[in-house]
Amino acid sequence: MRNIKKIVFIGLAFFILSASCKKKEVVDPEITFEKKEIMTQLADNYIVPSISKVQTDVNSLSTSWQSFLFEPTQENFDATKESWKAAYKSFQYVKMFDFGPFMEVGYANALGVFPSDTNQIENNISAGTYDLATVSNISAIGFSALDFLLFQENAMTLLNNSTNRKAYVSALISKMKTETDYVATNWSSYSSTFKDGTGTSSTSPFSMLVNAFCKDYEITKNAKIGIPLGKQSLGIQRLDYLEAPKSGIGTELIVENLKGLRKIFSGNSLAGASGTGFDDYLIALEKQSLASTIESRFDYLITEPSSWTANLKNMMINSTATIDSYYTYFHGTVVFIKTDMSSAFGILITYQDNDGD
Amino acid sequence: MLFGTLRFISKGWVAELYINPKFHFTYLGFDWVKPLSGNWMYLPFVLLVFACVGIILGAFYRLSTFAFFLLFTYIELLDKSYYLNHYYFVSLIGFLLIFLPANRFFSVDSLRNPAISSVKTHAWTIWILKFQLGCVYFFAGVAKLNSDWLFDAQPLKIWLQAYRDLPYLGWIFASTFTAFAFSWFGCIYDLTIPFFLSSSKTRNYAYFFVIVFHLVTWILFPIGVFPWVMIFSTLIFFSAKFHENILLFLSKLLKIKQVSSTFVQNYKSKMIVILLSIYIFLQVVIPFRYLLYDGNLFWSEEGMRFSWRVMLMHKEGFSTFYVKDKKTKGEIEIDNTKFLTNTQIDQMSTQPDFILQYANFLKNRFSDTLLVFGKNSFHLKNPSIHVESFVSLNGRPHKLFIDKKLDLTLIKNNLGNRTWLEKY
Fold it and tell me: Tell me: the pLDDT tens digits for B89-126?
């Protein structure tokens, strides 16, 4: 028995010695790679420019809407609609984040819930008073509510005929502006917490980032395609669940959303310059092939819709098989991200700190 | 355990784990164990606090230990999503305590009724606790004797590399070498520690390792109060003299007068010998029941629980359920978050018995149901339930776990071989 102990001791001593020798010659990314590089790259070169882009775009939405109120011409109305599109697209690049100031204002839900409850919107408008922050109004605010108010049939006439309706649009835009400004202002103070948050607990920013990434991918798959396609309703299509049904920009939103996730995965800046991302971490863990599988799957999902000849709604009706196989591929990618990638990172999905085995 | 229970209540876990979920994964044969409705669920936890206080003070000992065992086990039986080997350990110790005379000395009971006061105890009462602790370690060690653990250093390699960002030490954790060192040390530690603790010569050194080992696991892994439970439980291996000194110290601290000196006495009764033998037999056999099954234990998980397989694998899964109408072939892809909590989804995705239970739940939920989809409605009569499940074991690329072709409603959840799983 003593001998065993001796062996253990010698083993330990040997381990410590050899480990300290190793340090001098470290070049192996398996050892030197740090998660902080991912966090820093993402915070400085993706999140900051992305949120500032949304801020700029929501500001110009606000400005063009003010011009329309001042001078309700078709030209000004069209300008408002264009800035709404631009802002909605920029929003796709930040909607996956659910930590720090994003979490504090519930940013993704405040701006991005769809489909809209048009009855609730009309009721609010005719009542003339409303608290847009309440839960009951969650489907009567944000980009989706504006899709209805700006793109429905005779939208401009309806707006011009109703002060209440115009006031409602103003209130929606102003709410979006306040929340976006809040996130943009408060990100800088959270940024260092984020970059240092490379711990292993389920509440560490790195874990939250990976979880948010996986979750957004799944939500995009289900909400933007699966549900309207009838995946949760025995194949009976539910086109009333489509995102941005009036403007018909659903496909573009899917593509922008995926481009955002793809940049996060590869650690690219918003402008597209390459940097450290999840892919580099996977490579450090000797999972090169997983990294390239995920990348090529994203690339397929991003480029495939360019071959679609109609908007998403009409594609679902007339080219169901095309959308169906796109959805199947979308779904088939989840396991690479959620199972293989998360498990390689050693992320604990459990929210209870009592795990164990 | 008092601390553990209070921590559990204060973290809001009672509501999160037992009140809010729509569905619970019960243990086979214990389907009848149901949570109390609404906030009544707090009741067993509050009673548990009283039972803990009772045991610590040695007051109303039989009642306290009996209540403790019953309440704790009741809570654990509600949902196996929260199964932990350590909880099982606590239940077993709770069970043993009912029969042990741990209120005979330095207790409120012995003050109330000096007649029961005794400074002596039977050897078996201490011995059985040592045996139980020894089991935990030894079987945990035996379980580590597999190729993933020893020759791939998995799952520790995955878990330890996650600490790569620690200042100064990160590179040590990122190194494969460290994962091997930890794996082998952990294995040897588990296999030998009960014996080193038993021998008076090595006991002090061994206890030093106990403290180091559990502190390291406490720092590195999210395992709550249990490192502390083990650190204090293993004190049972120390001599009577040692415990006396602790009690003496406590007496001085609390200013209680107590006559000291405990003795251990050998005692033989046929009844006790038989009962002990049965208990020991079960404890030794249960961890090996997996031998009765074909296939890979980590894959099928038959014989996994109640076997001290602690921190042994890193399993991640992705399971998509489909409720299918047999006539039209129309499918409903299930969004698991509608019915299960995150912990439940996490546990369910990789474990066959959970998958069957959830399938059964879905079957009941959707059978003979009028589904309204906007302007359309559909009467779903007798759907089949399918799952497409992928699992990744110890960081390997995912593999198909259960094929979507199978109708899960036709499969029985029992102790038989799980031949319906894909081969590992």
Answer: 999 999 999 988 888 777 888 878 777 777 777 788 88
Report, as an integer, the average pLDDT of A305-316.
96
> Is residue A1 pLDDT above 50, yes or no?
no
Residue B331 is nearest to which of A200, A235, A345, comparing CB atoms?
Answer: A235
Is B126 in contact with B198 (CB distance < 8 Å)?
no
Q: Does A31 touch chain B (CB under 8 A)?
A: yes
How many percent of chain A have pLDDT more than 90?
86
> Which residues of A fall within a CB distance of 8 Å from B204?
none
> Tell me, what's the pLDDT at B11?
80
Q: Which of A198, A340, A350 sits opposite B398 (nearest CB)?
A: A340
Q: Can you give the pLDDT at residue B272?
A: 83
Q: Is B170 on the interface with A (CB under 8 A)?
A: yes
Q: For B385, list phi and psi in degrees, rounded to 5.
A: -115, 130
Task: Please state, in angstroms and rounded to a whole number, the distance separating the CA atoms of residues A327 and B131.
Answer: 56
* Residue A90 falls inside a structural domain: yes
Q: Dihedral (C-alpha) A38, A40, A46, A51: value to the nearest 10 degrees? A: 130
Alpha-carbon separation of residue A19 from A12, A97, A210, B186 (angstroms): 10, 38, 31, 18
Which has the minimum average pLDDT: A134-148, A172-186, A197-211? A197-211
Residue B331, classed as helix, strand or coil, is strand
Residue in chain A lying closest to B400 (CA): A335
Chain B residues in contact with A26 (beta carbon < 8 A) = 171
Give the burial string for A82-113 (b: 16+ CB within 10 Å, else e).
ebbbbbbbbbbbbbbbbbbbbeebebbebbbb
Q: Which chain A residue has its CA at the smallest distance from B383's CA?
A: A234
- pLDDT, residue B108, reads 81
Q: Which residues of A touch B85 (CB under 8 A)?
A: 356-357
Instruction: Compute the distance between CA of residue A186 and CA of residue A182 in angstroms, rounded to an integer.
Output: 6
Is the CB of B192 less than 8 angstroms away from the CB of A350?
no
CB–CB contact A22 B390 (8 Å): no
* Per-residue model confidence as pLDDT tens digits over B258-282: 554 455 555 567 888 899 999 999 9
- Angle, in degrees to the nearest 10, between helices A320-334 and A288-303: 160
Instruction: Determine the residue of chain B that is closest to A232 in CA distance.
Output: B332
At residue A205, does pLDDT exceed 60?
yes
Per domain, the residue ranges of chain B are: 2-291, 314-410
Angle at A62 between CA A58 and CA A66, to 5 degrees: 170
The domain total for chain A is: 1
Which tokens in the block code for residue B130? 């040592």
Let me know if residue A62 belongs to a domain.
yes
Q: Which domain holds residue A310?
A: 30-345
Residue A93 sits in a domain whose CATH number is 1.20.1420.20
pLDDT band with cut points at 50, 70 and 90 for residue A24: very low
Chain B residue with Cα closest to A350: B343
DSSP characters for A247-297? TT-HHHHHHHHHHHHHHHHHT--TT------HHHHHHHTT-HHHHHHHHHH
The rounded percent of chain B whose pLDDT value lies above 70 is 97
Q: How far apart are CA B389 and CA B401, in angstroms?
A: 5
Write down the pTM of the prediction. 0.90
> The tokens of A179 are what?
């929340």
- Are B226 and A356 inside 8 Å of each other by CB? yes
Burial category of B390 from C-beta neighbours within 10 Å (exposed 0-12, middle 13-18, buried 19 and up)? buried
Q: Which amino acid is at A194?
A: F
Check CB contact of B159 with chain A, cutoff 8 Å: yes
Evaluate if residue B386 carries a pLDDT over 50: yes
Residue with tokens 């740090």: A34
Tokens found for residue A319: 């080219």
Contacts of A14 in chain B (CB under 8 A): none
